[in-house]
Amino acid sequence: MTENYYSILGIDKNASDDEIKRAYRRLAQKYHPDRNSGNKEAEQQFKKINMAYEVLSDKEKRGNYDQFGEAGANFDPSQGFTGQGFDFSDFNTGFGDIFESFFGSGTRSRKKGGQSMRGNDIEALLKLRFEEAAFGTEKELKVTKSVVCERCKGQGNEPGSKIVTCQHCGGSGEIRTVRSTFLGQMATSRACDVCRGEGKMPETPCRDCNRATRVRKTEHIRVKIPEGIDSGATIRLSEKGEGGMKGGPSGDLFIHVEVEPSAIYKRNGYDIYSDKHVHVLQVTLGDEISVETLHGLVQLKIPAGTQSGTLFKLKERGIKKLRAKGLGDHYVRIIINIPLKLSKKERELYSQLALEAGLKVKTDESLLKRMGL
Fold first, then answer.
1. Which of 300, 314, 328, 341 has its CA 20 to 30 A from that of 236?
2. Enclosing domain of residue 11
């Protein structure tokens, strides 16, 4: 016979709610991990039993299951078929909680405190000027974080005082209560709120951290910025995050870099781009001009007839490459400036050039009057 939720519980398809409950309780007690330590088959069967009961004990899910099969059990009218099953491997949701309380803590025994814990990682934003990112620098960051209490060295007790057993929980770290349910006597447990699940506590709490073992503190951290770093990069400082607990290591500090744009340069990877405005005669006749780069002034020859928008490459005048040799390049875009106002002499010369070129220029007479020509 094909295995289905009814056959898993050993019941008929027409079984009543009470019959489903009785079958579930009988099988759950039989296959519970506490009674079958190390038995993988029993563990898998226990999961199947929980899954079957989760569906068959719910009228809507049972109706969908009867009509559509296992996929129907996961049908949500608002979302359609979710395709998600039920995971009871950690007994942490649904009927996992019921079984943890019914059979005690189940396969998950409560862990007492005292175990070391790594501190949390933290993040910070660092803004750099364009030149600082290009050539590298050293910056100071102000970071507020939790650090190990210096007074008690992360132990939580006043120096010289003892660590004693918690009288409220008797050193177990948990408080257990028992109640009656349809499955019988249910035992539940929770962390002791006096010792915070530790099972032990300071005889005299540390006056600085009050047993917390850590305190909030603002630190000034020096950060070396490598040459060539760009926006979006992240620098990791190991163990500069929040302090650990119970002797655990500190977390890390992740610094996210944001580079402010330059008024002169634009960056693309390790290459630099800039514009150079020149007179129309400089590109008509050709010239040698000075170009400002990150590494100082460079002389650039412009051939006669150069067009506006032409790019010239200045090799290795860009950004130093990270984790590699060499520099990027600097690209200069030529922008031709057309004179907005001409003197009388300039007007005459341009007119002569127009005649020489065979151009019949229709001059704006109003413009000539404004220029006094």
1. 328
2. 5-102
Domain of residue 271, CATH code = 2.60.260.20
39 with 67, same domain: the answer is yes
Q: Is residue 85 part of a domain?
A: yes
With beta carbons less than 8 A apart as the criterion, state whether 142 and 79 touch.
no
Q: Is there a contact between 302 and 311 (Cβ–Cβ < 8 Å)?
A: no
Phi and psi at 315, nearest 5°, equal -65, 135
Residue 315 shares a structural domain with residue 361: no
**Residues sharing a CB contact under 8 Å with residue 64, sequence separation 6 or more, in sequence order:** 72, 73, 75
Nearest to 211 by CA among 144, 163, 145, 160: 163
What CA–CA distance (Å, rounded) separates 329 from 2?
71
Does residue 308 form part of some domain? yes
Please name every residue paired with 290 in a beta bridge, in sequence order, or none if there are none.
299
In a domain, 143, yes or no: no
Specify the pTM: 0.59
130 contacts: CB under 8 Å, gap ≥ 6:
259, 260, 261, 262, 265, 267
Q: Is residue 195 part of a domain?
A: no
d(CA 294, CA 228): 12
Q: Helices 40-56 and 95-102: crossing angle, nearest 10°? A: 120
Domain count, the chain: 3
Do 10 and 98 fall into the same domain? yes
How far is residue 45's CA from residue 50's CA, in Å, rounded to a whole number? 9
Instruction: From 53, 85, 102, give the residue that closes a domain.
Output: 102
pLDDT by residue for the chain (373 residues), tens only, comes to 457 888 999 998 899 988 998 898 888 888 887 677 778 888 888 888 888 888 898 888 888 888 766 655 554 444 443 433 333 334 333 444 444 444 444 434 444 455 788 999 999 999 999 999 999 999 999 999 999 999 999 889 999 999 899 988 888 888 888 777 655 667 778 888 888 788 888 999 999 999 888 999 999 999 999 999 999 999 999 999 999 988 889 999 999 999 999 999 999 999 999 999 999 999 999 999 999 999 999 999 999 999 999 999 999 999 999 888 999 999 999 999 988 888 889 888 888 888 888 887 776 555 555 545 4
Q: Which of 82, 102, 122 is the last residue of a domain?
A: 102
